[in-house]
Each structure stands twice: as C-alpha cells, then as structure tokens.
Amino acid sequence: MTYLAKSPWILHYDASSCNGCDIEVLACLTPMYDVERFGILNTGNPKHADIFVITGSINEQNREIVKNLYDQIPRPNVVVAVGICACSGGVFRECYNVSGGIDKVIPVDVYVPGCACRPESIIDGIVTALGILEEKRTKMVLDVDKKEHRHAGLNPDHILSTGGVQ
Amino acid sequence: MINIVWAIVFVLVAPLIGGLIAGIDRKITAHMQGRVGPSIFQPFWDVGKLFEKENGVVNETQIFYAICYVIFMAFTGALFFAGGDLLLVIFALTLAQIFLVLGAYSANSPYSFVGAERELLQIMAYEPMVILVAVGLYVATKSFSVSDIASSTVPVILLIPGIFLGFIYVLTIKLRKSPFDISTSHHAHQEIVKGVTTEFSGRSLAWIEITHWYETVLLLGIVYLFFAFNPLLGIAAIIIVYLLEIFLDNTNARAKWQFALKSSWLIAVVVGVVNLAALYVLNGGVS
Amino acid sequence: MMAAQVITPIGVGDVVSKAGQAKKDGYRLVQIGCTKIGDDFEIIYVYDKDFTLLSYRITVKEDVVIPSISSEYFGAFVYENEIHDLYGLHVSGINIDFKGTFYKTAIKHPFNVTITKEGDSCQNK
Amino acid sequence: MTLFENTKIVISSLFTRPATLMYPAKPAKKTANTRGHVTINPAGCITCRTCQRKCPTQAINVDVKEKTWEIDNMRCVVCAVCVDTCPTTCLTMDNQYRPAMTARGGIEKVTVAGPKKKEPAAAPANGAKPAEKKE
Amino acid sequence: MSKQITVPFGPQHPVLPEPLHLDLVLEDETVVDVIPSIGYVHRGLEKLVEKREYTEYVFIAERICGICSFIHSQTYVQGIEQIMGLEVPERATYLRTIWGEYSRLHSHLLWLGLFADSMGFESVFMNAWRLREHILDDLEATTGGRVIQGVCKVGGVRKDITPEKLDEMLKGLRGMEHELNDLTNVFLNDSSMKHRLRGVGVLKKEDAYVLGAVGPTARGSGLAIDIRSTGYGALGKINFKPVVEYDGDCYARCAVRAKEMFTSIDIIEQCIKKIPDGPVDMKVTGAPDGEYFSRTEQPRGEVIHYIKGNGKKNLVRHRVRTPTFTNIPPLVTLLKGVDLADVPVVVLSIDPCIGCAER
Amino acid sequence: MQLTQLLIFLILFPLIAAFFLLIAKKDVERNWIVKLSALIIGAVSVFLLITTYNKGAMLVSVIPAEQTGILMFVLEMLIAVYILYLGITYKKWLAVALILVQTVMILFFELFYAHGVHVESNLFIDEFSLIMAMIIGIIGSLICVYSLGYMKFFHEHHTEMPDRRPRFFAILFIFLAAMFGLVFSNNLLWVYFFWEVTTLCSFLLIGYTKTDEAINNAFSALWMNLLGGIAFTCAIIWLATAGGGMLGLSDLLTTGKAIALIPAALIGFAGLTKAAQLPFSSWLVGAMVAPTPVSALLHSSTMVKAGVYIIVRFAPIFQSTFTGYVIAMIGALTFLIASGIAISQSNAKRVLAYSTIANLGLVVACAGIGTYEAIWAAILLIVFHAISKSLLFLATGTVEHRIKSREIDDMTGLIVRTPKIAAMMIIGIAGMFLAPFGMLISKWAAIQAFIDAPLGFLFVIILVFGSAMTVFFWAKWMGKILTVTSDGKNIEGEVDKSEWAALLSLAGLSFVTTLVFPLLSTVLLEPFLLFNYGHVARLSQDNIIIMILMLFLIVLLPLSILIPHRKHRHLAPYMGGRTTTQDMRFSGSLGVQKKTVLSNYYLHPYFGEAKLRPLGIWLCSALIVIMLLATIAKGVIL
Hints:
The complex is a heterohexamer. Helices cover 73% and strands 1% of the residues of chain B. Chain B is built from eleven helices and one strand; from the N terminus they run H-H-E-H-H-H-H-H-H-H-H-H. In chain B, helix 3 packs antiparallel against helix 4 (86-106) and helix 8 runs antiparallel to helix 11 (257-282). The radius of gyration of chain B is 19 Å and the shape is globular. By secondary structure, chain E is an alpha+beta fold. Chain E has helices at residues 57-62, 69-84, 90-118, 122-143, 163-189, 191-197, 205-211, 215-219, 250-274, 323-335, 343-349, 354-358; strands at residues 5-9, 21-27, 30-37, 152-153, 156-157, 289-298, 301-310, 317-321. A three-stranded antiparallel β-sheet of chain E has the order 1-2-3, with no helix packed on it. Chain F has a domain at 1-156 and 163-244. Chain F contains 25 helices and five strands. Chain F is mainly α. Chains in contact: A-B, A-C, A-D, A-E, A-F, B-D, B-E, B-F, C-D, C-E, C-F, D-E, E-F. Chains B and F meet through strand 1, helix 3, helix 4, helix 5 and helix 11 of B and helix 20, helix 21, helix 23 and strand 3 of F.
C-alpha cells in the first residue's frame, strides 16, 4: 500500500478549453463534490503535483507549455485528459489552430469524455488515475532496484514513443 | 535547567502532534466551508506520499537547506521543551527560518524569490513581537528560562495580557494563516504560487511540512507559557487559540505585506509600551 | 426587432479622421472586424453611442497598408493586431505592436488562405 | 461590525451538515433532462444518415453497407441534435454519462436493422425515404 | 542597473484558471511594466463557419466559452434570425431571457468565488461555488446541461419548461436570496475585503469610455453600458435598471456584479410572471443572406456577433467580439502601478474569460 | 618596566614602520615591511595580552610628561596648520573656521591653564584597553596586510590615479599608532592628541583618490570630527578650570558624577561625532569613496571604535543619569534608523556603512545605560563587530575586483562564481546577525541588560525593531549570494595571497571568538566589570553549551553536501509553464526572449534614506542639544 493513492495532488492546466470542463474541474473542489475527501489538493504548481489534469486540446502555442509542465512534475505522475477536446480535439478538431488531443504531446493515462465533463466523471477519472499512479510507483521502485532508474520521461523521444498517437 | 528527556520527547512526538493538529485543522476548515474534508490523518499521508515521490530539485543545495531547516527547528523546539532560555529559543527559531529563506533564494526562480523576500518581510514583521513576548515573560516571572517560567506560579496572563494579544496577532503570521499567509499558503492559490516552497518538491517538501509541525507545537508551547500557572487552563488556552486561528483563516482575505508589517509593528509598539509601562509602574519603577 | 444597421463605405484615407470625429462626438469603439470576400478585404469599424451603432466599411486589397486608429482609441491595438495576425494585412502605427505574436497560429494568416486540412468525416482514429 | 463579516456563514456551515454529495458512495445526481450519452435502439435504425449529417462534431458514422451505426464518445458533445432529428426516434438520450477510459477509444459500434424494406402500412406515407436509401 | 524583478505571470498560474500570459516587471512589489500576451486558447473556431451549416454552428458558437455559453448561442441565433427576418415565438424569447439570466447568476457566483480565492479567501470561494451549484441544478434540470446548455436553436429553443418547474425555480431563487445576501455582504462590507479592493485598480470614467470597457468593468466606472437596455429577447417587456457604481476601483466592479445578481433574480421573476403560453419553436427554412451585428449583454459585458451570410448554408463570416477582448486594453492600463499582490485581483476584476477572448 | 616598554613599543613601532614605508618605493620592499610590521604588531599585542591579562588596571607614570606634552602641542599646531592649508586650498570654509576655533581654544588652554595641570600617569592599561589593543593589533594589521594585494590591484586598474601607495601605507600605520596611543593614554591631553591624529588620518585616507567626491567627503568627515574635537577641547578647558585640573582618566572615573558629568557629556558628544552617530552619520557613509581597506579600517578597528571606546570609558559616569539616558537614546535611535536605512541600500558598502552606524548606536545605547550588564554587552559588541565587519569589508573589496561592482544585485550567485570568497562573505554576514555567532550573543546580552535597567523597556522596544530590520537586510544579501545560478562560471581566479591570508584569518577569528567567548568573558570582561562596577555579567553555563552545539551544527551541516547522495532529477525553475533556457531567459510577450532579473527589495517608500535620515537627524540633534544643555545647566546649578 502506498501513500500516493491517498494523497494525489493535482495540477490543472487549461490547454485550449472553452472553460466548460475547466470550471467543472474547479467545481470538483467545492463543497458539493469536495475531492479533498480523497486527499486531493489543487496545487497549481507542477513541482508538487502528482496528477496532471488537462482540459482542452493542444494548439500551436500551448504545446510547449504542456510539455514543460509535464516535465516539471516529479515521477510517478499520471495525466488525465478531461473532456473530449483534451481526448481528441473534440468539437474544435477541425480548427486550423488545433492539433488534436493531449496525447499528441505527452502520454495520457486517463481519458475522461464529456462536453462539458460532469464533475462526477472527473472524479471517476481521477479515481481511475489513482490505480495507475500506484502501478507506476511500483514500477519505479522496481526500476530503482534494478539500478535502471534513469531520468524517466525526461527524454522527449521517450514521450513520443510511448504516448504519441499517430 | 535543561532537561534532555523532554528534548528527546519533543523531537519524537512533536511531529505526531503537529501532524494531527494540521489534520484537525483541515477537517474543521472543511466543515467551516460546508464540506466534509479529508481524514484527520491526511497530513501524514501527504508527507508519506512526498517521501515516495521522485526527488526533483532545481539544484542540490535546496535539499541541504530543507534539512537544515528541519534540524534547526527540531533543535529549537527541543531547546524550548527542555526548558532552555527563551531568547535563545527565539534566536534559534530565526536561524531555522533563515534556512528556509535561503533555500528559496537558492532556487533562483521568480516565484520562490518573491516568496523568500516576503518571508523575510514577515520575519521582520513578527520578530519584534516575539522578542517582546520573551521580554514580557521575563518581566512577569523574572526569568528567561522556559523551565522557570513553566513552573512559575505567577498568573502571567494577568500581568501581560497585552503582550499575549500581540502574540496571538503575530501567531497568525507564523502559522501561515489568512490574512497573513503572505509568503506561502497551505493552498497555493496565490499570486506567487506557493512562495518559498514553490521550488521544493518530493522529499525536501516533506521535510518542510514536518518542520511546520514542529513549529506549530513550539508556538503552541509558547501560548502555554502564558497560562503555565494552571496547566488545565494552559491546555484550554492552546485549544481556544488554535480554534481562533482557524476561524481567522476562514473569515479574512489575505492582506498585503504592507498591512502585515505596519499592523504587527503597530501592535508590537502599542502593547509593548503600554503593557511594559504598566508593569513598570506596578513593580514600583523596577524594570 | 431591432433597428436596421447601416454601414457607410469610406476610403482608407478617411479611417483616422472618421475615428477622430467619432471620438469627438462621444462614440466608443466597439469593434474592428475584417472579412475576406474573394480577393478583397472588408474592414468594418464600429462605434457606439447610447446603443446606436456607427459603422464604416473600407474595402482594400492585401497590399494596402491600413493606418492605425490606436492614436484615437488606445484600445484599438487588440483589433488591429488581430487583423494583422489573422489576415496578414499591414496596419501601421499601432501603439502596442505585437508584430505577429498576438495569436501564434499553426497556419500563418489563417483567414487569408483556404485551409485544405481534411476534416475527417469519420472517427476511426 | 465590518470585521469578520463571514462569521455567520462559517459558523452556520460548521454546525450544519456539509453540503457534500459524497459522490462515489452515493450515486451521482441526475435529472430526467440530463444529457449523458446517446443510445440507439438498433432495431429502429434505418441507416438514413440524418444523424451523421446533422452531427456538429461528426461523431456519428453510419455505414449503410455494413449496417452499422457507430458513435465516438470522445467526440460526442451530447448536444442531442441526432436525437431530435432522428426520423424513427430510435436514438435516445440516456442520462448516464460515459466512464473514464485508460486508453484512447470510446467508439461504440452497433449493428443495426437497416432500412425497412417492406412496411406496407407506412410505405405510402414516407415512401420517399426508403427509395432514397436504395441508391 | 535598475532594481527590477521580472515575473513571468502565467500562462499556467494557480490564480488564473485560464492561460493568460503577463510579463510583469516589478520594483519591490510594484508593477512598473506589464505586457500581456494571449493566444494560448486560440482555436480559430470562427473559421469553422466554412465547414458547418449555420444551424449546426449554434453548437460551436455555444462553445466559444463554457461560462457564457448560453448567451453566445442566444446572440448567434438572434443574429441569424434578424438577417432572416424570423419572428421567434414569444415564449421562446422569455425562456431565452430566463436562461440568460440564470447564466449570468452562475457566472457571477463563479466569479465571486474565484475573486475571493485570488485574495486567499478560500471559505468565500467555497460558499460562492456551493450556491452556484443550485443555479446549475436548475439549469441542468431544465436544459439537460450544467454549463453547456445546448437549448438555443435558430427559430426558438429546444426545450420548454413546465409552469410547475418555473414556480419551483422561482421559489428556489427566492429561497437563495438571503444566502446570496450573506455572501455579497462579505464582499461589500468585510474590512479585509475592502482593504484589498478599495482604491485598487481605479479606472476613470473617461478612460473606461475611450479604452472601450464594457460590462461590469464599464459600469463600475459609472458608464451605464448595459446592452440589456436595448430590450433584446424579452427584455423589452421587463422592467429593470442597470447597476452602476462610480468609484471605478475593484470594489466598484465587485459591487456591480454582486448587485447584478439580485437584478437578475428580479428579471427572472418578472419573466416567469409574464411568460405567455405557446410554442417555443418554429420551422426554419432557407439560409441567411445579409449581415448583422448581433449584440447582447453577457455576464462580462457586451458581446457582438457579426454575421454575414450570402444565402448559402455556410456563413461567409462570423466574427465574435467578446467583452474580455475589449476589456484587455483597460486591464493593461490598470495593472501599471499596482502591487504584485493586486495583480490577480485586478486581472480578475475585469472577469477575464480568455476562452471567449481568443475563440 | 616591561609593561611600559611594551606600550611605548606598540605606539611607536607603527610610526617607525610608517617612516620606512614612506621611503620604500618598491613593491617587494613594501610587502616585506608591511608583513613584518603587521606580524610584529600582532605578536606584541598578543604578548601584551598574555603578560597582563590577569593584572587588572595598571598605571604607567615613567614617561616624561612635560617634554612629551610640548612635543604633542607642537604636532597639534602643525596638524592645524596643515589642515588650514588644505582647507584654504580647497575653499572649505567650514573646516577652516572650525580648525581656527579649535586652535584658538587649544592655544588658550596651553597659555593659561596647561601649567596648572599635572597628571601622575600618562599611560595605563586595563582589560578594556587590552581588548581594544587586540582589535587594533590583530584586525588592524590584518587589514594592512590585505591592503597590499588590494592596492596593487587597485592601481593596476585605476591607472588614471597617481600611485601614492607609500603615503597610503604610512598613513595606515600612523593610524594604528594613534589608535594604540588613544587606548593606552590615561592623560586626557594625550587622548586628545591621538584623537586629533585619527581625525587627520581618516581625513587623508578618505581623500586618497583625490576625486572631487573624495575631497568633499573627506572634508565633511573632517568638519564633523572637528566639531567633536572642539567639544573635547571644551571638556579639557572645563576640567582645567572648574575640575581643578584633573585630567587623568582613571582619577576622573573615580571622582564621581558631580565633576565628571559635564566633561563626560562633552567628550561623549565628541565620541558621538567620531562614532558617526546620527546626526553625524553622513561622514562615515561618505567615507565609502576611499579604497575598501580604508573602509574596513575605519569601520572595524579604528576611528569609529575610538568614538565608542571613549563613551564606554565614561559609562560609569553616565550610569542612571539623565545625560546617560539621552546618550543611550541617541544610540538606540541611531540603531533603529540606520538599520532601517540599510534596508533601502543596494550598494554593499553603504549597507555595511549603515550597519556599522547601527551597531555603534547599540554600543552607545549600552554605554549610555551604563550598567555592568550593558557594558558587558557593549564590549562584546565592539569585539564581534570588529571581526565580522572587517571580514565583510575585505570580502566585498575582493569581490568588487572580480565583478566590477559593489551592487548587491550584481552579487547574485557568487557562491557559484566565486565560491571561496562567497563563503568568507557568508561567514561575515552570518556573524553579523545569526545565532550562535558573536553579534547575536551581544545583542542578546544587550536585551538582558536593557530589561534590567530602569526604564529599559523603552530601549528594548527600540532594539527589537532595529534587530528585526537587521535580519531583513542581512538575510536578503545572504540569499543573493547563495542563489545558485545555472549559468554561472567560476571567475574567482587567483586571489592575492595577502588578501587571502587576511580573509581566512578573519573568518577563522569569527569562529574562534564565538567558541572562546566564555573564556574572553571570564578572563577579560568579568575582572573589568568587577573592578568598575563590583558586579559581573555572564551567560549561564547551559546556554554556552547550547550555543557551542549550534556552532558545531552550523559547521558540520555544510559538510553534509560532500556526502554523496542519491540521484536527483533536475527540474527547471517554475516559470508559469514557459520554456526557459539555461541562463534563465524565458519566452515573453511580443515574442521576445526575456532575461529573468531578480533584484532585492529595497522598500524605498518605507525605509528610504530620504525619508528616514532627516527624521533621525532632527530627533538626534534635538536630543544632543537637550543633553548638553541639561548637563551643563545641572553642572552650573550644582
């Protein structure tokens, strides 16, 4: 049993969402849904985060930002794409400035559909993420034991090879 | 006299008590906000989690400062609970705090830097009042030694109520509660992200959390000194003071540093002069 | 039903003087919008006073340099930068000139070109 | 008093039950109108492709030959236009939202009945439609 | 050497839920220079008119922004209806107005919460968002969506509300009123709030006019710009007065929004009382040919949808001028000279909706 | 008499060294003379300590007073003429007027009263003098050694200035001689003579570079110190007339307040000017134009220390008198205001200057209070301040030559760029404000002393605010140095051996003195206090152990960096998600790459010089006037 699953701190970034999913992510923190029950805090700081919650799709300008933030989150971490824009580009898929879902840039672990996502779905998504988080932790510990622990995920090639769809 | 046993007890037990206080704090805060909130053991899980995470740093010296911070804070608390000299405790506390500031400086990032400067501003804001607490306790009990003050039968609070109030005021700064969570706050919704602790992560952040627990226990220990003549009253005072801090946290917007500095200085001057002058008159002109 | 809206055509040279006149008359700038029709670009300047619109339209070719009205209306820079970035038209004398970095788009001047990126009619991806 | 104006709210919240819905422990709140996801009654679908054409995000793909109707939940914006425009009302809006997925997927494929070839009673009324489909 | 501190504020920043990017140059903690830049949310959805029919496009227009979603769709369809000369059933206009005001309520509550959060007043944030959930519940029950309603369509609305439900909604709102009172009281009277808001980020009336401020930003500076006064939708039959404050500081802008919530409740009440029976929808054929500036009042201010059609199913041009877009120049001028601690407060005081601004 | 010889040797030997330095033109010769002389002076000082530490106060009366007196008078007149000449040359009429007044007064004294004065013992030594002699002998000579490297570098890089190093080093040594004379003299006339010599030396050293700024500042230092000199002369004349010709310091201190208070107040005033207390602080700040070793000398071991030395000497007279309280208040206010101004300063040397003024203010406050505890604190302050401040000045000087700037903001990341010097600087700064280093022990002692004094709580309140501000400006400087910049290159290069020796010795001293301060206290301070007050102040055993424990922690913890530890992943600093290059350039608005600039807070609107200085000047001037008037009125009435 790890503590990771009991205290997942999230970093929320609005890639190019319409705010719909965005405010629903925030709504999760508020009294009605209160995800702090599960130890979830919205840290707003990648250095402290475990779960990277992204709403909205990748566009030309936030590509670097998303990658940068992802790199600054200490391992193990998981990425949750919230909303269909984050999953696939959604309704804006065909816009000239939208390149598609978050998985074009960083590996995504959980996809939460919806437009806009309901807070309940977001909670479900994060709970799903917790399982993955724990798996990753176990894997990380094993890797260290095998003395193979290299800077996991820092290498952009790694990201592309594991997560890049298409 | 220094009592080593108490020092060791502090070093071992304070994190447990401090963590529990933090947990209860979060629970009560959540209820005040109309939600259920986390388990009261959540702070321990958070710290456990941080120890499980990868150690990410901007540069290695940060870890050094974080460790110095916790060591000196534990040392300070141990010194206090062992019954050492209160002034020395306060100086040691400042030293510990400086390590946190240096850790923030060393990261060379804008948010951490602004946080460090603000932390220093805060130190500047509360330091006079904290020393005045020691002075007031000395004037009331004729000793700087914590063990003497704790075993004194003088009803300290009746002699220095003003200084006690002033201390409660700056305690808000020390506990990083709204309105004075200026350099860093428990929830990072702040213009400077998480201020001094922005660049700390994983293990070093866990150390800093533990340090906060030590600090909380130490500060509540100082509250106790005002009521040491009656231990029950002392415990009650600690509880009431902490509840008051939670209440303040939930009923105030974050103030700006200018206000924090001005108001805490003003209070320090006023209660310092009034209370000490009153004592001076009471004691018939002898200090 | 609201009142019909009249858009007065003017020349490129009149843009600034009309803006000055509007400002003098107490109009606020509501928007500057651009539309590409064939090879021409229509730019509409819209002012408002007491919920009545005053609109001017200029029709220009791509190579025409449009004078900025940001000297009259400080806030015009957002619209003018936008027109520059989305349509590739040149606006001279903007007070805060982002020089093409207002919107960083995947395709340069997207509204000036016909985008051939195939909208996939079916998911399967 | 202008200090601590929030006292009333804080104290009353402290002493009343929290507003939290305790979501996973208790089921999610829903209303009859809630748009969760689109479901299809395969028997009713005539593969007319109206839904595919009207869908603003092109989430629906109807394969006339294979007689399949598929929807990509990663694209669907649950606007319910398909439901409104479906001539046979075989599409309905369920108020249960779609679960999270750990891999990019979300495509639901349903084999449907396809165009109704003989329906004597209804044929005169909307005979144009089956005819169209035959092409 | 100048004694300055550069702070890259955003695009990812905890107090700004949306990506806005400010290069702050500080001296001590005073902002001496600020250059904003946007474009992190720019999708380019206006170009989609070339790919979507004007009727489908409603759903795209609605997703310009998830907060102002309903009013965006309303503005868009009003523009289309204007060009096509459609007479929308009256009940539909009333319903649109009701939902519009509901959107305003939810947006203002959302904003009040975020605004409090930017000052570290977490419990007010929680309280505001708790109240907002009641509004969202009503929206969901009547439209099916919490934040994206999807009920507007060209020629009317897609859902009707039963009279019982309308009564229930009204009762709910009236029941909420005292809680709203408690909430706004904190914003308007608490001294720690006043300390942060009074005299911070003062926008003078003349500046607001010249810089093109709209919505509460303008009304906080004494400009009574409220497009609802033009009487679009059913508002022409409703009695209301725009809320105007004169100080032009953050406090005034906050007060405008706080008081507007009560105006919105009043408008909803009048609508519910006056709403006629009848259909909510009409059949639409053909396609728009012409151009129109459709204006409505969003929670953040005046929004303009410029719609130009040429008789085909696809529009020629759809241009949205959102309130945040035109509030950016005032924001830039406001930020100079404030404290770093005030930056998020001032930024939020114009209620920026970057999703809107960049489309 | 071995003691006599030692004392005279210490006074005269630097003069001899000065003479040789004046004629030695070659670098090698100068290096040898300076190093040897410094070694000798240091060694003899230590020898003096070893031989006399347990002997108590000793008077020396074998010097032929008559002849020496005449010699001193002649020298004083020569100095006066020289200053007069310079004053007229540079058209500094204020200085001219003051020197004229002073000369006339001295002449007046010599002609009418000198014959009536007879002092048994001209020289004396007690534990306090011994401590001062240590400071001068060890720190002073270390600074002279340091100057070798510094001045060489200085003239190599400032070729526009004439190389007048022989003169420079000669003055340095004369300065040391004068300081030795000052602390060993029992005869107030002798004290006065050496007093004037320090004034002259500092004047010449400040004006060394002969730029317009240097000359102006030198003259402003001169006229302020001349004011003090005039007050000193007044005191002597008063003693010669109303005081019955009692000019022996040891006699004066035992006669009691009735007679000694007025001269003590006057000399106290002189001390305030020399110790650069408000309103006379500006000369010390202005003295920053001189080469850095001069600043170090003025601030740590000589000049300003002469000012506080004389005030502390008279402390028993001040104890629980109105005069004493007013002087203490001037000191306390100076501490408060100078600490505040130091926050607003970005120039490292100015920060150091204001910090000196502040700390001297604290010494003056302690001396004005005058209780045994306060004096204990005061002397500790003098010792620890001398060590840390000289270390800081010298380190700043060395850094300045590397980074070509004195701005604290330019010192960002020194720990990466010049790690060794940065470490020295950190030790100096830590020594100034952190537990368990000396300055903090002294401040602690001061707090205790203040509370125990009547009405002391007022001073405590001032003190706590002052020290809070002290923490602020030191910590932010420290933070700047310790910032780890990712793009820093080591630019330390070769540090001149002489500079290095001085820095290392001083850094070592600040640790050693902190460690051995209990010894210092029992061996030197306690006998002194016992003799003068009949009471002893000390820290309790427990506290000493704890302090030593802390010191060990502080020494040992940095070593932990050397221990290899687990791999860490390096994350870029948080920049709001923006991409950042290695040298901290981020992609900013308008598509421009922006450099991250992080400069300290200086809080000008709150602590600016323009705001606080006038306040301090008015308050303290008023207090000085009150002090003098009240004392004289009281003296005249009695």
